[in-house]
Amino acid sequence: MATRAVATAIAIYGTAHPLGGIAEPMVTDSYNLYGVPGLIEMPTAENADDGEFSGSFSRSGDQTRTALTFQFSPRLSGTFRYTKIPDYGGGTDYYDRNFDLRFQFLDETKYLPSVAVGFQDIVGTSLYSAEYLVATKSIGEQLRFTAGLGWGRLGSYGSFAEFGDRDFVVREEGGEFNIEQWFSGPVAPFGGVAWSPTDKLTFKAEYSSDAYEVETRRGLVDYDSPWNFGAEYRFNEGVSVSVASLYGSEIGAQVNFTLNPKRPLLGPGNETGPLPVRPRPSRSEDPAAWGQEWTTDPADLAGLEGGIDKALANEGIKLRAISLEGTRADVRIENNRYYAEAQAIGRTARILTRALPPSVEILTVTPVRDGVPASQISFRRSDLERLENASSDAILSEAVYSEEMVGLPDGMEFVDPTYPETNWFLGTYLGFGLFDPDEPIRGDFGIRVGGSVTLMPGVVASGSVKYRVIGNTEEASAKQRSENVPVVRTDFREYARATDVFIDTLQLAYFGRPAPELYSRVTAGVLERMYTGVSTELMWKPLDGPLAIGGEVNYVVKRDYDGGFGLQDYDVVTGHASAYYDFANGYNVQLDAGRYLAGDYGGTLTLERRFDNGWRFGAYATMTDVSAEDFGDGSFDKGLYMQVPLGWATGQPSKSIHSFSISPFTSDGGQRVRVDDRLYERVRRYHKPDIEGSGGRFWR
Fold first, then answer.
1. pLDDT: which is higher, 108 or 10
2. What is the three-class DSSP state of 382?
3. Which CB contacts under 8 angstroms, 24+ apart, belong to 557-562?
4. In the predicted model, what is the mean pLDDT of the chain?
5. Which domain of life is it from (predicted)?
6. Which pLDDT does position 5 carry in this prediction?
7. What span, in angstroms and rounded, lies between the C-alpha atoms of 660 and 640?
8. Are 58 and 33 spatial neighbours (Cβ–Cβ below 8 Å)?
């Protein structure tokens, strides 16, 4: 039976066909000059497609606005907006940061309009603070009518009633919720119409209820009329431009970009298609093939293992360990190519059906990372044969999930037990500094070199060095500080000024499995640009449940500005208890409570939307016992973040991701130490909810 190795190779490889993809169009909705679905400046009750992300850049008179809008759910959207108002006071420019929320609570029907409620500048300075109720109705395919009622800024022109008192004072620090003012003060009507004679061109007219009172008093706007007129042209489904006549005296213009995480730029992807499942002959047709004599032949076993190892390597998957028996096969794999673990597991299962003799019925695949298993998934081979052309949900519903601990079970052998294992990288980095009063956008570009060494399963040494080639973050204005709060983050300018070459990270980490459903991490060394120390973490997470609970304790010392091994005279013990809950359809919530870098106590709430292809969009807010006055501009820490997978843009499978964050109010309160490979993100993607929610990638 020495020829089985050759037969295995032929059976595994067979003929593969590339899986091509055709670009799907992205739907572009109409956004107003404030960056929200609307007419010209007034909002409408329309929503963008679920998951759509929009970036708009507009100029209205002398004001410039940059807005980022995300359709967080089919009904709820949020907007972050950054506005520059020139010569606002004393000849200086004013930069305003604010957030919007809007909720569509009625869909348009044949006879009824869609209806939405919106909150503008919900946690800002109140310069743009407003609330509104708005309805929109389509008449045919070309006309859309909108009518609404506005309060606050949108109730400042043509008001017909008043609901209590409203404070129109602009808050210098901002950042606090102005709940007591919602739907109070004068209320005024607004409305308009949009007409689209073609798919690319739309004309708009609106009656505005915004009197621009603050700007008019300061001589920034010459307000002559509540009527605005405009036109929008769509170059394609993702890019549009608009021009408008505003207040009877000004001209406005806007460019808008939209994309949707659900619709990759190159369609489903153009990676090579997976190998098909190889059906077994029936036992009655070929009883000899179902024999188990191969289990006693070392040459057969070696041939099978070698064929499986080679086939997996061609898929970017490393075979770590294997056990072959007469009726079952167990493999441990490390996925180095696919963002979705389900895709790597599915391709592994297909290869096993092609390589193994017919007697093997139970196939168990265990993904590992740095030698540490997170879970194992078992399939019946007959289910794989029966359901290959069904949905991924069908086969995953038949799978059995179970835990796997560190170390090899009896009978399983390492394929390549050689340690240490080394990985190196050389790349570039781009860092941003946003919202500086003198220069709203600052940045650094440079080279990053580093690597990791897995010394043994679960023990990883890693580090990186950065060299800044060009940038201007060292010119940032000094951040507001309080004498009552230690300086833990607001001296980032001093770090940028001190050196262009610095150690970014240099650490040793141990990842363990102390007991079933428990995961542990200990990390020591240079944790981040500003801090060095020791970080410990323990997390409980069942592999098939939505809830995880963890705790983290850190002892850190502040690093010298020069980026070497020197330390400053500041150390602190921080720690948090954390709860994570994975809701359906990719919605996640995280709550952290504990002690922060400045010694302050409080909590952080994070809301996140995940997509099965690796996109993530989230928002967080941190409240601690640092007062709003001591915190300074913004009153409390808050921000947005986004993760974009490289494969979404290129169409090629990749585990690379690019992360961006927007923290508009940097201060010393509510700050946490940054630690690589915190357990929840490291573990969750190998568990049942994420594998089953992978968007059908098991059969991809």
1. 108
2. helix
3. 557/531, 557/532, 557/533, 558/488, 558/530, 558/531, 559/526, 559/529, 559/530, 559/531, 559/532, 560/498, 561/491, 561/494, 561/495, 561/497, 561/498, 561/499, 562/498, 562/499, 562/502
4. 88
5. Bacteria
6. 42
7. 9
8. yes
- Residue 519's CB is within 10 A of a number of other CB atoms, namely 22
Residue among 136, 109, 133, 138 at smallest CA distance from 120: 133
* Residue corresponding to tokens 């940045």: 443
Separation between Cα atoms, residue 533 and residue 350, nearest integer Å: 45
**Which residue type, as a one-letter code, is found at position 436?**
D
Measured CA to CA, the distance from residue 78 to residue 51 in angstroms comes to: 11
Q: C-alpha dihedral over 640, 646, 648, 652, to 10 degrees?
A: -170
User: What distance in Å separates the CA atoms of residue 275 and residue 471, rounded to the nearest whole number?
Assistant: 48
Cα gap 671→661, rounded to integer Å: 14
Determine which of 147-151, 252-256, 355-359, 480-484 has the lowest per-residue pLDDT on average. 480-484
Q: What is the pLDDT of residues 127-175, one digit of tens each?
A: 888 999 999 999 988 899 999 999 999 999 999 999 888 876 666 555 5
Are the CB atoms for 511 and 519 separated by under 8 Å? yes
- CA-CA distance, 33 to 48, in Å (whole number)? 16
Lowest mean pLDDT among 321-335, 441-455, 515-529: 441-455
Q: Is 177 exposed, middle or buried (0-12, 13-18, 19+ CB in 10 A)?
A: middle
Measured CA to CA, the distance from residue 253 to residue 33 in angstroms comes to: 8
Would the pLDDT of 13 be above 70?
no
- For residues 237 and 104, what is the distance between their CA atoms, to the nearest angstrom? 23
Please report how many Cα atoms fall inside a 13 Å half-sphere around the Cα of residue 150, on the Cβ side: 27
What's at 437, amino acid-wise? P
CB 449 within 8 Å of CB 464: yes
Q: Measure CA 14 to chain center.
A: 38
Alpha-carbon distances of 341 from 344, 387, 425, rounded to whole Å: 5, 19, 23
Asked if the model's pLDDT at residue 442 lies above 90, the reply is no
User: How high is the pLDDT of residue 24?
Assistant: 32
Residue 54 · residue 31 · CB < 8 Å:
yes
CB atoms within 10 A of CB 202: 21
Q: What is the pTM of this model?
A: 0.88
Longest dimension (CA), the chain: 94
Residues in CB range of 682: below 8 A, 6 or more apart:
369, 511, 519, 521
CA distance 557 to 534: 9
Question: Which H helix or E strand runs over 253?
Answer: strand 250-259
**Per-residue pLDDT tens over the stretch 48-106:** 999 999 999 999 888 899 999 999 999 999 999 988 888 776 667 778 888 899 999 99
- Pair of tokens at residue 561: 């500005």
Q: Which residue has the tokens 């009552």?
A: 484
What residues form DSSP beta bridges with 378? 364, 400
- For residues 5 and 43, give the distance between their C-alpha atoms in angstroms, rounded to a whole number: 67
CB count within 10 Å of CB 658 equals 11
CB-CB contact of 148 with 43 (8 Å): yes
pLDDT at residue 43 above 50?
yes
> According to the model, what pLDDT value does residue 125 have?
64
Write the DSSP string, 164-212: S----PPPSS--S--GGGTT-EEEEEEEEEEE-SSSSEEEEEEE-----
